[in-house]
Amino acid sequence: MSVKIKTFKNTAKRWLVSVAMISEGVDIPRLRVLVYLPNALTELAFRQAIGRVVRTCGPDDDTRAYVVMPSFATFERYARRVEEEMPASV
Fold first, then answer.
1. Given CB 3.0 to 4.6 Å as the disulfide criterion, which of 35, 46, 86, 87 pairs with 78?
2. Residue 90 lies in a domain
């Protein structure tokens, strides 16, 4: 994990801009917004990226996750699958 990501993880800074740095093994529970502009078009890469922001911090966590992505049929299909598997809590 890079120094910048470690620093962000342990502060209250509001923004982190990274290109292909928030990947497998990086856990920053407070991430809530993802702008998804990938090189890889696989469902696995999509799910891993989405997984960085859709986590909750427990039963009292009422935050929302936001994903901004290009309007590609492939991504929309992946998003529908994730939505079906993990419906939003009420």
1. 46
2. no
pTM of the complete model: 0.74
Alpha-carbon distances, residue 69 vs 18, 26, 29, 41, 87 (angstroms): 15, 21, 21, 12, 19
Number of structural domains, the chain? Answer: 1
Domain span holding position 8: 3-85
User: Tokens representing 24?
Assistant: 């497998």
Residue 43: the pLDDT is 93
Residues 37, 43, 49, 54: is their CA dihedral positive or negative?
A: positive
Contacts of 33 (CB under 8 A, 6+ apart): 53, 65, 66, 67, 68
Q: Residue 46: inside a domain, yes or no?
A: yes
Angstrom distance (rounded) from CA 71 to CA 69: 6
Is the Cα dihedral 17, 6, 45, 77 positive or negative?
A: negative
| pLDDT tens per residue across span 27-72 | 777 788 888 888 888 999 898 888 888 877 778 888 888 889 999 9
